[in-house]
Amino acid sequence: MNRNDYNNEIKFIVSSKSKTNSSINSIQFKNNNIYSGCDDGTISVWNISNSNDKFEIKLLFTSEKIHELINSLQIKDDYIYTTGDNRRISVWKIDKYDNNDNVKLISTNKNKVDGIINTF
After folding, report:
1. For the segment 30-44, what is each residue's pLDDT rounded down to a tens digit?
2. Total domains, the chain
């Protein structure tokens, strides 16, 4: 396989029309939603829909700010675990609101950490 063969394997499908107020550092998928951790310390929830091979990405919700910047985001069941520049781990609960996913902060540790490893 030569270099030009790779250009035919990855094709752009769609980009969201809406956007966050800051850069996205990490994303995770659950069901038809994308969860993004952002530079402004928030989590955004996006919905992906596909109708007749026409994809649409729509911003549903942006959380409150808890970190200075979210570096890492992991999902396990109905919980989101984030780390940020404040070197803390925060736990968020995924809830339904108006039939869409919503996230609520439920815990942040008081001690500083340097990283998180997903062993789920």
Report:
1. 888 889 988 888 888
2. 1
